Amino acid sequence: MKHSFFKHVTVILPFLALASFSFAQTNSLPAGILTKDLATDESAGAALSSINEKAVKNFSKSYDKQNKASWFAVEDGFVAIFTEDGIKTKAYYDPKGRPVGEVRTYQEDKLPKEIRHMVKSTYYDFNIFLVNEVSVGNAKVYLVKIEDNTSFKTIRIQDGEMTETEIFTKSK
Questions:
Q1: Please, which residues bridge with residue 32 across strands?
Q2: Is 165 within 8 Å of 142 (Cβ atoms)?
Q3: Dihedral angle at the C-alpha atoms of 155, 159, 161, 164, nearest 10 degrees?
Q4: Mean of pLDDT values over 76-104
Q5: Which residue of 2, 69, 137, 142 could cross-link 80, Cys pair, CB 3.0 to 4.6 Å?
Q6: CA 58 – CA 68 distance, rounded (Å)
């Protein structure tokens, strides 16, 4: 199971890494990843039909209240992007329309209390400014971006274990 999870995470993490840098500036994927905006293309009817029908059905089952998603064709399948209640969600599907995983991006106030407590009890002088929640199957990883006066850090939390994955020192 863990091997399968990490196999899928390696597919999603490049999207996550690029998307986390552009989250505050834009509502689209960076150039080079996006091949076609299927929701806003002038030929949206024809373009939307190029989305795998199974992906649309799976999306509708998982996100039944969501009807304003933007669909994009990406190198290895499709992604539906939408925002609801302050949480930006990217749902990934393989070329056959099967769900691969999702990435949810939000602020500290949406973070589950037990995860927030883990971070704050160790990094009490830091502010949480962004959270990326990566889900593949039943596995979930939180990438919590924190900062203090001198540094930025990314804290990875999975199965109750917390590790620092990135540390950047602020310039003076």
A1: none
A2: no
A3: -20
A4: 94
A5: 69
A6: 15
SS3 track for 22-77: HCCCCCCCCECCECEECCCCCCHHHHHHCCCHHHHHHHHHHCCCCCCCEEEEECCE
Give the position of tokens 């994927």: 29
Listed by start position, the domains of the chain span 1-103, 107-172
User: Are the beta carbons of 8 and 137 closer than 8 angstroms?
Assistant: yes
Q: Does domain 107-172 have CATH number 3.40.1280.10?
A: no
The pLDDT tens digits of the residues spanning 30-85 come to 333 333 444 444 433 335 667 889 998 999 899 866 668 899 999 899 999 999 88
DSSP string, 95-137: TTS-EEEEEEEE-GGGS-HHHHHHHHHHSTTPEEEEEEEEEET
Amino acid at 110: K
The mean of the pLDDT values for the chain is: 79
Enter the tokens of residue 62.
């998982």
Please tell me the total number of residues recorded for the chain in this structure.
172
pLDDT at 131 over 90: yes
